[in-house]
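Run folding on both entries below.
>entry_1
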Amino acid sequence: MESVLVTGGAGFIGSNITEALLLRGYRIVVLDDLSTGRMENILELQTSDNLKFVHGSIMDSGLLRSTIKSENITLISHQAAVPSVAKSIKDPIRTIDINITGTTNLFHIASEYGCKRIVFASSSSVYGDTPELPKRENMPVNPKSPYAVSKASKELLARVFSSLYDLKIVGLRYFNVYGRRQNPSSDYAAVIPKFITKALRNEPLPIEGDGLQTRDFTYIDDVVNANIQALVMDDIPSKVFNIAYGERISVLNLAELIREITGSTSEIVYKATRQGDVRDSLADVDFARKHLAYSPKFKIKEGLEETVVWYRKHADKRYAA
């Protein structure tokens, strides 16, 4: 049984990856400092004998070394990060430290101990506000925030480490991920969990800007499947791949669709444009289709319906938007 280290495994995306890997029979070690992750996300998973939780940071070289060595880690899903554009603008030094130095730490130690493969989280934010759509992996990066710079830097580090060491490193550029376990009250919270929890309470839905900005929203199950494929498939190149659905919707239309699905009477209110945001986002996922056998299943309405069901069941117990 192979052992997988999931950094940030108590977070939104990391916990879903952890659950999927457990169902596939892997032994999982979750490393999380709980700065944004929540133990509630993996509480039910801890009944498994194949899950171990380690409280700590990717900045801790000693802890990383001892964990990778003692747990015989061969595969790594690297989801740990400071995951907020706004937070990176307020505190760029912490974002750079954790996202770049922490990732360098992980790559270096993984190479020392003979790990076979790392799959890491990048972001569509690396493209910035270039007008060309859809975004393709061969386009130049144009980050607009320290957060986006940190993600672009991780991609460069991956390219260097995979060329210098016998280590395959695969990057996934996430496009606006949403779904179960996403905390609507966190600094990183995307617009969807905020809209859904407010709509369920018939509270106003705040739109930053004019609402005509567009996003390519990606349901969590599609993101998880991409991560699993990137971890376990043979003959995958050490490249970066767009992970998205491949269609876009305006934030205004999104709010209207969520009102429709929830049956909400929420009003839509407008606020100032958020600093560091891009105007439009749309992914070309052909490269991931070809090399990862990636096939996104969830159109925006289907994903939203699944997400609303989860929040109806859990939001009042776990989150307050």
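>entry_2
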Amino acid sequence: MFLNLSNHPSINWSGKQLQQASIYGELIDMAFPFINPAWNTKEVHLLVNEYAAKIILLKPKAVHIMGEMTFTLALVHLLQKGNLLCLASTTVRKVSESNNVKISQFEFIQFRPYLDE
């Protein structure tokens, strides 16, 4: 199973991204949680532990994690300790301008493993 934990549901992914995810099996979306910017470290870690437990029970082959950085870093470290493959998506940002309005489009390139400690 390929678990997508992000704010970008797989229904909106490109064919290339879907194809690369399919290498790991069934694609499952899990919405990235809201991380209150006023929370302290302990509050973030409580949510990290909750999500780690949910993910470990699912036994995915790979977890795509993209979102709020402190939560993501802590969750990746926990999942890696459990020998789960954690991936980030890499993109090329294409910016165009029309009538003084910048429009950004992102082209998926690959999934890249998060580095271990």
